[in-house]
Write a structure and sequence with these properties.
single chain; 183 residues; mainly alpha; Fumarate Reductase Cytochrome B subunit; two-stranded antiparallel sheet; elongated
Length: 183
Amino acid sequence: MQVPDRAYDPATRWLHWGSAAFFLLLFGLGLAIDWVPRGEPKIMVRSVHIVLGLLLTLLLVYRMVWRRRHGLELPAVYLDWRAKGVEVFHLGLYLVMVAMVTSGIVAVWFRGVNLFDLLTIPAFDPSNKPMRRLLVNIHEIIAYGLLGLAALHALFALWHHYRLKDGVLQRMWPSLQHKSAEL
């Protein structure tokens, strides 16, 4: 089954790949926080993680608004049970992304943070260390869940490309923007 050669617009592709890159960077920084020694280095890594996390939040909000207003409809050949599956999977991805950024914001708000030794966000409940740890753990678990969903998303894209040969991957691939101008 062939999917039309119509590519996603450049903004949609940028938002897709930008979100993926931001998430992978944040995931790595989140892991690094535990490896960095206490003091100034840990403050810097955590601060960068939080600021980039806020930027990812803004990107995610913009991406959801963009998709709602400008999203490319599925081709008519996909208007069957598969379309519903794709729709549910993408909704799940978005819900987990929202849960991840929300849990990060709640964790920062609850535990408080020193940002770059320039700004201190006071802790909501500084004496409740078990709750702080729980909120950070929830954020971490959601991040691992998102990583798993993103990997599954990538595997489906590769399956479409190599097994079904239906052109789905090329529609989102950044290099297609030059080819789509020729179509």
